[in-house]
Amino acid sequence: MLSGRDPIAEEYADVLQNLEFAVVLLYRQHPELLDHQVNKVIEGLERSYTTEMNGRKAPNLRLAPLEAELFDKLKVLCDWRLGRATQSEAGLPEEVEALDVDEIILCLKRILRSIKLWTKEYGMRGYLDYVNQFFPAPQSE
């Protein structure tokens, strides 16, 4: 999420929210997660979808276990937004209108810009701490 008027953030707010909420949930479970790891995963997804769109084979990504976990979660969400996975596979309550691959790529690039901005501004967890504040913590019983 970036502040100010941003047409991509406005048009794809629900997609960005889906993806960033998955990042936040993993961050809450693993506070050792760093912005550069999230960046690596998002870049990997963006490259994967870009190569797919260009008719090439997806790149072989080298991810640490926590990065691989995040990649898998975000890939399912992206595939759901593309109409390739059901809402039950994505763990979500409803179906959505399918996006095109280029729209998912736009969203991933938008998140990459946000990571760069908040990491530069606030350090190695600047992005994670920034987006975390937009998703309320679950209430304790």
Question: Characteristics of this structure?
Answer:
141 residues, mainly alpha, 7 helices
Tell me, rounded to a whole number, the average pLDDT.
Answer: 91
Secondary-structure element series: HHHHHHH
Helix content percent band: 55-70%
Q: What spatial form do the alpha-carbon principal axes imply? A: globular
Strand composition percent:
under 5%
Our count of domains comes out at 1
- Tell me the radius of gyration: 15 Å
Main sheet makeup: none
**What is the number of strand segments?**
0
Class by alpha and beta content: mainly alpha
Helical region count?
7
Q: Ends: how far apart?
A: 30 Å
Which stretches of 5+ consecutive residues score pLDDT under 50?
Answer: none
Structure notes:
- By secondary structure, the protein is mainly alpha-helical.
- It has one domain.
- It is built from 7 helices and no strands.
- It has helices at residues 7-11, 13-29, 35-53, 65-81, 87-90, 101-122, 126-132.
- Helix 3 packs across helix 4 and helix 6 crosses helix 7 (126-132).
- The radius of gyration is 15 Å and the shape is globular.
Summarize the structure.
By secondary structure, the chain is mainly alpha-helical.
Topology:
Layout: H1 7-11, H2 13-29, H3 35-53, H4 65-81, H5 87-90, H6 101-122, H7 126-132
Helix pairs in contact: 2-4, 3-4, 3-6, 6-7
